[in-house]
Structures are given as structure tokens and as C-alpha cells.
């Protein structure tokens, strides 16, 4: 078949089916025609060669199938797909690739030797990776054809795929171009174009990709052997290790999601690239279900809730730091107050420490050596530098560089060390909500999940070795109390000594046994992560699940033998000799900001009363009751409750009640003529449950009780 004919056939099978696009798709450029021609030539030769090898060898091989069954096959001829068909037509239809002696294989790639054969479907993570990786080729082909893109790379990701390509230094992909690109992808998928695997020599590779400078660089860098694999699929030929789907028709539903810019970072000068991302599924129904799930998740996204409820915002003039508005601050403070109350109960002492330190501190703590890139460093003011060079009393070296603290531990060590300590003071539990700064890359910042400035419910326990077990039990109990109130379940894991650890092995052994005993005593299920501890001590990892069952890592309990040595912390032991304390780093909420985001999503903006920035709204029936409504509001506010007034008489009562419920006010206090004369309120909940008439004083009292006991369902138990 001549090239022109082939081009026509390809267009008929793919693009031509939708007449709307034919005008948008440029005629086949010469370079593409040449590449396709060469590919066909090489493909025909490979098919011939394989057939003759199969015929010449004519060797029977043994294949063991999933489930233990063993079958005979013909070397260089039988394919995993043929064997899948023998097992069941459903498997043949749903398999996306095979695993042959542990290596990933195309379903159409002939088996060569005795093999252990497994099939991958979309249901597994590896199967999804093959599926999405194949989908990105379809996207690449569409970008090449519609936009004249020069393709760079197209990997699968944890949730979908993207393709990076070059459109010239100035040209970008516009969001308005995605629908047309998506339609072409869908048509290419519907055309069920087979993926064909071809082994090509270095020379052939250079010939195939002579018009793509990026691929030429990749060939130069990555192809170390005499040959490498390329795949042909419709009009696309791409350098790729595979494996892929049998054909693009296995992609039943495909959606393009975002367009953004990216950068070519491999060898040579950096080049501006365009990135388009998408997701795909075996069926349209699965795509629809995913879209519905995503809409639900978007509704629950804490950034959306934060905006809708006026909790917080971000500003480009302080990237990665959050502005908490009055309502957000109310939630924030309620969380911190909860932890403070626990501190009082549990013998923790709250302290305040500086946020700016000389880098000498970070040299002692080891942060300057291991963590410097994640810290914000600042130059001291000019006057410091001047005085250090002019004044007789100033040190002879230049003034120190300063850095914002990324964690509190070194400051607490200074506090422990600032005067002699006795065993009678231990355990010393220092808690600190100080602001921490970490130099996160701007690209990684997102809502409250990752910030440059945040506060933790951070505490450090300085104790004697024989107090460790009780202290760890105390930490575990602290975690459980807080997570129960927040409605989270959790799993614990003990991470033990890694291969590169610091300190005495016998100390490690003892500490690990202590942690293990504390966990057993605690009574909740836990698992062992051998070798997963930090180099300075073993730890207990806490994996919590929110109300939606989503996992989060927030709390931590971490032993540290190194910090007391680095700071040479000592206390006078019972026998009179100096001893080193052990330090426990622990946090329950972790970052308060991040926890606020987790909670917003977990409750979907319907805050429990004790955290709620929308506790009560008072709604007067008519203008005559406004004065009494205001008085009720003042009474609630005086008691420390959040209370708004909706006196907008332009709207009917039922509209205002509905509006309050949609805004998730836990309670609505309606006051009419009767309530005014009897000093009562008529109470409804946000779920439109009518609680009837209550004496105002008693209602305030009841709300306070429910707030102070932090019940999760005040509306139901009022
Ligand atoms: Zn590929
Ligand atoms: Zn710490």
C-alpha cells in the first residue's frame, strides 16, 4: 500500500469519521509521512523475521497460568492474548497487559520461553498504569495531528495521565482547545487502532525521529543498547518501552482535564513545554461515575468551603501563608482551645519561644546540615553588622545569619538547658503553638494542605529513661481522646531501627521494647514497620481516617536520643550524678491549619457545634420583634456563643429559615410576638428538625453545655 493510500485509510479509520474536524486537521506533513513509511517497512520486516524464527525453532514451551494450570504453547508464536481467550472471553476482553516471568508484556507479544503468566486488568494499580500510559499515546497522537505538537514525554500518573509537548517558544495550549483535542482522542480510541511493538536499531531510531529534537536527545541519553523499542499506533510512532493495550478501542471513556505549562529539563537548554492532562476508563459508565465522585469531592474541597463560608483566603503577596478571616479564626481558636484544655488536664506547660534564630542553633541541632534548603534564612539588620565591626564589645566575627524556625525542638532544648535541672522536675512537658516556616516550593503549595507558615500542637517531653513507658502511654491516650472527639478512627504502627541509625544498639532495643509494651498496654491494634524509624530514634506512626474514610497522617510520637546529646542536656539524677534525658516529640493535630482543612472536608462544611462559626442565627418574624431578637443575640454572644441576626424583613420567614439552614447554622432561634412576650425562642436545627419553644436562658445554658462537652451531634441531643 502506498503512503497516500495509507494516509487516506488512517484518516478514514480515525479522523474522517467526524466531518467537523477534517478542516481543523492539517494535511499530513512530509516528515510524518516519511516516519510512517519507515515504520511500515521495519514492521513488515519484523513480522517476516518472527515468523521464520518461529518456524525454524518450532519449539514447544510450558506456560503456567494463574490458578496453577499448565499449558503448552509455541515459542515466538503463541501470545498471552490467545491464552487469555482460552481461559475466558471476559478475561480476554478485560485484560490490559500480561506479566511474563515478572516482566510486563503486551498481550500480543509472542512468548519466547517457559513462562509464568499473569494477566493485569484495570482493577489493579499496575493495570491502571498500563491503561493510562496507553491513553497518553492517544493524547499525543491527537496533539500531533491537531496542534502540530512535537511530543516529549507522556507518563501515567497516580490518577490519569499527561503529555508534555512543544508548540514553539511562544504558543501555548488554550483551555478552549481542549474540547476539540478531546474529541479527536475519543475518535482515535473509537477507531480501535492496534499498538504495534517494534524493535529498532539506534540508526533506525535516529532516522524515525530525525524531526523531533527532544526524542533525539532521549535516544542519545537513554538508549544504551544496540536497539530500543518503538510503538506504532495509527499515525503515531513513539519511542516507548511499553507495554500497552492491544488497541485503542479498549479505552471506552476519556476526558481531558487541564492545560498548563511545563519545562523540558533533560539535557540541553530548558525549553517551554505545554502539558495536557486527562483520565480514561474502560467504559463510559466508569468515567461518569468518576466524574460524579469528583464533583462530590470538589463540593467538599476545603478551599471551596473556605471561600463559601468566608473562613480564610490566600494572597499572592504572601504565597503559602493563610489569612484566617473572623469565622475561620473562630474554628482555629476552638481547635487550639481544645488542645489547651487537654494540656491543662495532662500536665503539659505551654511556652512561647522565638521564631527567628541564629543559624548557630541550627548547626547544633543538625538542621543546617540536613534541612537547610527547606529553611528561610535572613540577613541581620545593617545596624547589627555595623556594630559588630565597630563596637569594642561586639564579637570580632560578622553578625550571624538568622533563620526562621521550621520546628520547635531546638528552642525547647535551650529552655531545658537555661538553668540546672533536677530529676524532680521530670517529666518536663513543654508545649508550643509557635509559628513555623518551611520553604516549600511554590509549585507544591495547595490550600491548607501544604503551607510555608503554620502552627502545630507541638510538644516535647523531656523525661528519664524509666519514665518513657508511662509517657508514651499518656501520648497514646491523648491521641485517642482527641481523635474520638473529632470523629476519626486511627491505626498505629511501630517503626523500628533503620540500617543507618545513630546511638547505642542496646538503647534502641530497650526503647523499642518500651514502645511495644506501651502499645500492647494501650489495647488498640498496631502493626510493626521494621527498619522504618528515623535515624535518631524509633517512632509510632499514626494513620487516621476521617469521616469519609480518607487516610491522613497528622499525629506523631517520636523518640529522640540524639537531640539531648547534641545540646548536651543534663539533669541531676537521683543518685546525684548528671544524666541525659530522653526527648519525645509529639503532636496530635499536627499542623492546625491542615487539620482545619481535613475537618472542613470531613464534615462538608457542617461543623459540629463546638467548632462551628455558625452556631446560632436569631430570626425575628417581623420588625416589631427586632429589638427582642437583638437582645437574644446579645445574650448568646455574652455567653461566648457565635450568634448572627437575620432581620432582613424583605424575605419571608420561611425563606430566611431556609437560607440559615443552607448556610449550615447549627440552630435557628425564631422569635415572634408570643416568644417576645414570654422571653422564649422557637428553636429549629439545620436539618429542619423543630425543637419547639424554649426559655431563652435555658436555651443558652443548654448550648453552652453542648459546646463545652464537644459533642459531635448537638442538633440531635439538644
Ligand atoms: Zn508507551
Ligand atoms: Zn520536635
UniProtKB/TrEMBL annotation:
Keyword Nucleotide-binding among record annotations: yes
Q: Does the keyword Metal-binding apply?
A: no
The terms describing its cellular component in GO are: mitochondrial matrix
Q: What is its EC number?
A: 6.1.1.3
Q: Which GO terms describe its biological process?
A: threonyl-tRNA aminoacylation
Q: CDD domains given for it?
A: TGS_ThrRS, ThrRS_anticodon, ThrRS_core
Q: Which residues form the Aminoacyl-transfer RNA synthetases class-II family profile domain?
A: 328-608
Q: Quote the subcellular location field of this record.
A: Mitochondrion matrix
Annotated GO MF terms: ATP binding; threonine-tRNA ligase activity
Give me the reactions it catalyses.
tRNA(Thr) + L-threonine + ATP = L-threonyl-tRNA(Thr) + AMP + diphosphate + H(+)
Q: What UniProt keywords are attached to this protein's entry?
A: Aminoacyl-tRNA synthetase, ATP-binding, Ligase, Mitochondrion, Nucleotide-binding, Phosphoprotein, Protein biosynthesis, Transit peptide
Going by the entry's taxonomy, the superkingdom of the source organism is recorded as: Eukaryota
Domain named TGS is located at 59-121
Pfam families this protein is in? HGTP_anticodon (PF03129), TGS (PF02824), tRNA-synt_2b (PF00587), tRNA_SAD (PF07973)
Endpoints of the signal sequence: none
The UniProt function text for this chain reads: Catalyzes the attachment of threonine to tRNA(Thr) in a two-step reaction: threonine is first activated by ATP to form Thr-AMP and then transferred to the acceptor end of tRNA(Thr). Also edits incorrectly charged tRNA(Thr) via its editing domain.
Which family does this protein fall into? Belongs to the class-II aminoacyl-tRNA synthetase family.
Assembly description: Homodimer.
This protein is called what?
Threonine--tRNA ligase, mitochondrial
Native organism: Panthera pardus (Leopard)
Amino acid at each position: 500500500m502506498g503512503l497516500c493510500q495509507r494516509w487516506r485509510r488512517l484518516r478514514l479509520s480515525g479522523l474522517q469519521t467526524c466531518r467537523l474536524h477534517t478542516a481543523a486537521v492539517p494535511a499530513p506533513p512530509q516528515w510524518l509521512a516519511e516516519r510512517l513509511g519507515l515504520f511500515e517497512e521495519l514492521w513488515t520486516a519484523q513480522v517476516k523475521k518472527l515468523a521464520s524464527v518461529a518456524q525454524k525453532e518450532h519449539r514447544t514451551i510450558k506456560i503456567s497460568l494463574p490458578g496453577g494450570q499448565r499449558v503448552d504453547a509455541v515459542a515466538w508464536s503463541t501470545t498471552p492474548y490467545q491464552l487469555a481467550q482460552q481461559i475466558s472471553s471476559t478475561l480476554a476482553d478485560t485484560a490490559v497487559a500480561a506479566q511474563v516471568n515478572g516482566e510486563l508484556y503486551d498481550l500480543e507479544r509472542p512468548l519466547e520461553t517457559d513462562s509464568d503468566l499473569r494477566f493485569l486488568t484495570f482493577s489493579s494499580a499496575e493495570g491502571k498504569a498500563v491503561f493510562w500510559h496507553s491513553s497518553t499515546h492517544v493524547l499525543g497522537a491527537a496533539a500531533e495531528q491537531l496542534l502540530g505538537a512535537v511530543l516529549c514525554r507522556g507518563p501515567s500518573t497516580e490518577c490519569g495521565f499527561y503529555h508534555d509537548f512543544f508548540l514553539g517558544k511562544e504558543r501555548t495550549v488554550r483551555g478552549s482547545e481542549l474540547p476539540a483535542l478531546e474529541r479527536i482522542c475519543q475518535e482515535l480510541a473509537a477507531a480501535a487502532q492496534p499498538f504495534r511493538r517494534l524493535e529498532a536499531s539506534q540508526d533506525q531510531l535516529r532516522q524515525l525521529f530525525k524531526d523531533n529534537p527532544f526524542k533525539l536527545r532521549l535516544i542519545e541519553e537513554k538508549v544504551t543498547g544496540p536497539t530500543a523499542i518503538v510503538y506504532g499506533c495509527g499515525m503515531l510512532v513513539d519511542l516507548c518501552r511499553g507495554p500497552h493495550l492491544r488497541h485503542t478501542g479498549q479505552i471506552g471513556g476519556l476526558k481531558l482535564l487541564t492545560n498548563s505549562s511545563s519545562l523540558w529539563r533533560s539535557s540541553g537548554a530548558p525549553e517551554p513545554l505545554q502539558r495536557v492532562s486527562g483520565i480514561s476508563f474502560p467504559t463510559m459508565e466508569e468515567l461518569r461515575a468518576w466524574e460524579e465522585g469528583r464533583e462530590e469531592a470538589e463540593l467538599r474541597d476545603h478551599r471551596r468551603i473556605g471561600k463559601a463560608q468566608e473562613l480564610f483566603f490566600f494572597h499572592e503577596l504572601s504565597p503559602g501563608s493563610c489569612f484566617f478571616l473572623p469565622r475561620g479564626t473562630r474554628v482555629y481558636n476552638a481547635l487550639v482551645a481544645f488542645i489547651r484544655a487537654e494540656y491543662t488536664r495532662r500536665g503539659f506547660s505551654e511556652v512561647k519561644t522565638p521564631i527567628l534564630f541564629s543559624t548557630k542553633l541550627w548547626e547544633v541541632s543538625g538542621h543546617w546540615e540536613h534541612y537547610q534548603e527547606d529553611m528561610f534564612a535572613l540577613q541581620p539588620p545593617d545596624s547589627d553588622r555595623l556594630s559588630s565591626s565597630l563596637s569594642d564589645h561586639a564579637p570580632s566575627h560578622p553578625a550571624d545569619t538568622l533563620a526562621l524556625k521550621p520546628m520547635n525542638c531546638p528552642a525547647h532544648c535551650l529552655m531545658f538547658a537555661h538553668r540546672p535541672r533536677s530529676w524532680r522536675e521530670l517529666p518536663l512537658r513543654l508545649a508550643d503553638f509557635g509559628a513555623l516556616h518551611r520553604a516549600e516550593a511554590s509549585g507544591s503549595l495547595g490550600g491548607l494542605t501544604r503551607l510555608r507558615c503554620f502552627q502545630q500542637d507541638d510538644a516535647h517531653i523531656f523525661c528519664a529513661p524509666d519514665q518513657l513507658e508511662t509517657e508514651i502511654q499518656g501520648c497514646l491516650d491523648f491521641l485517642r481522646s482527641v481523635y474520638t472527639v473529632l470523629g476519626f478512627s486511627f491505626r498505629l504502627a511501630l517503626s523500628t531501627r533503620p540500617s543507618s541509625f545513630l546511638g547505642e544498639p542496646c538503647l534502641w532495643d530497650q526503647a523499642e521494647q518500651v514502645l511495644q509494651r506501651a502499645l500492647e498496654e494501650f489495647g488498640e491494634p498496631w502493626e510493626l514497620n521494621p527498619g522504618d524509624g528515623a535515624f535518631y530514634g524509633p517512632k509510632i506512626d499514626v494513620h487516621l481516617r476521617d469521616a469519609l474514610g480518607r487516610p491522613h497522617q497528622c499525629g506523631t510520637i517520636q523518640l529522640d536520643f540524639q537531640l539531648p546529646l547534641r545540646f548536651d542536656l543534663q539533669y541531676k539524677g537521683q543518685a546525684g550524678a548528671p544524666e541525659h534525658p530522653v526527648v519525645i516529640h509529639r503532636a496530635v493535630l499536627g499542623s492546625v491549619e491542615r487539620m482545619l482543612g481535613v475537618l472542613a472536608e470531613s464534615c462538608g462544611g457542617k461543623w459540629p457545634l463546638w467548632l462551628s462559626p455558625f452556631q446560632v442565627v436569631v430570626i425575628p418574624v417581623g420588625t416589631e420583634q427586632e429589638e427582642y431578637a437583638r437582645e437574644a443575640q446579645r445574650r448568646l454572644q455574652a455567653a461566648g456563643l457565635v450568634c448572627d441576626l437575620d432581620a432582613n424583613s424583605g424575605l419571608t420567614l420561611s425563606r430566611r429559615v431556609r437560607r440559615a439552614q443552607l448556610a449550615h447554622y447549627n440552630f435557628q432561634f425564631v422569635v415572634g410576638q408570643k416568644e417576645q412576650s414570654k422571653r422564649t425562642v422557637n428553636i429549629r436545627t439545620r436539618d429542619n428538625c423543630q425543637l419547639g419553644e424554649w426559655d431563652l436562658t435555658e436555651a443558652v445554658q443548654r448550648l453552652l453545655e453542648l459546646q463545652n462537652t464537644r459533642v459531635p451531634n448537638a442538633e440531635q441531643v439538644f
